[in-house]
Amino acid sequence: QGTIIVNVRAAVLGDEYILLLADDRTEITRTERIRNDFVANVSHELKTPVGAISLLAEALEASPDDEDAVRRFAARMHKEASRLAALVQDIIELSRLQGADVVHQGKAVDINEVVADAVDRSRLAAEAKDIEVRVGGDVGAQVFGDPDLLTNAFRNLIDNAVRYSPGNTTVGIGIRHRDGLVSVSVTDQGIGMGPEDQERVFERFYRADAARSRQTGGTGLGLSIVKHVVENHGGEVTVWSQPGKGSTFTVRLPDLEGGTEDQSAAGRPP
Ligand code: ADP
């Protein structure tokens, strides 16, 4: 922090003047570092399931007649392959988001509809743990943006609420529309997390509990996707949590009026 990186070039002009050109490279260097860290993380994360699949395949080849072993190895290969697929999908989604221009390609989106879609997509995971997902609050609020990206963001929050909660609990989703802002909060009665984790959970590949996250199919990218989507829509996402009690993730977005002030009127309803 506090360091500025400059690229200085000098040219001598005649006898009296020296021309100094200084480029501020601070931001570029920071971006490069973030990109390099990301590539290193991606390689590491991809290598783990790929390595496991190749070991399991070798084990399968070595014991083709042991039916019990074949079944166990195949089941583990299936799990590792699903993890690999989820990881690849999240990486593609994240890189697609870097270039997404929701301001110019967006439209009017009914927030209750995207939340209902997201709940639908998380249904299987919730039912598998007997978790009830309840939606309540205001209806009819609209925001300006990309419905698929927003559905995906809410789905990530609901999937997490289910993933980090014990069975037989409830996930509550509250929608509010006030003073030009639409807020959606997803509250669970799960394991929660301490203040240090709360500060870092939106970073790529950060996990409060890596083993649990991997075990339950997490990629470590869900919340950074949520943050990107929400910020692309001019909003913010915050977390409140208490270990052992549960967590609330709140997404705040400008409503359709607030969100379209300086945008084309193309997506506005008549
Ligand atoms: P992951 O795929 O690991 O869930 P995310 O980016 O979605 O990755 O979340 C990052 C980390 O934040 C998780 O590994 C977990 O430790 C923590 N986390 C996210 N959501 C919750 C939640 N609802 N309750 C408790 N911890 C959570």
From TrEMBL:
Its EC number is 2.7.13.3. Keywords: ATP-binding, Cell membrane, Kinase, Membrane, Nucleotide-binding, Phosphoprotein, Transferase, Two-component regulatory system. It catalyses: ATP + protein L-histidine = ADP + protein N-phospho-L-histidine. Transmembrane segments: none annotated. The keyword Phosphoprotein applies. One of its GO terms (biological process) is cellular response to phosphate starvation. Its main location: membrane. This is Sensor-like histidine kinase SenX3. The lineage of its organism: Bacteria, Bacillati, Actinomycetota, Actinomycetes, Micrococcales. The chain holds residues 118 to 387 of 393 of the full protein.
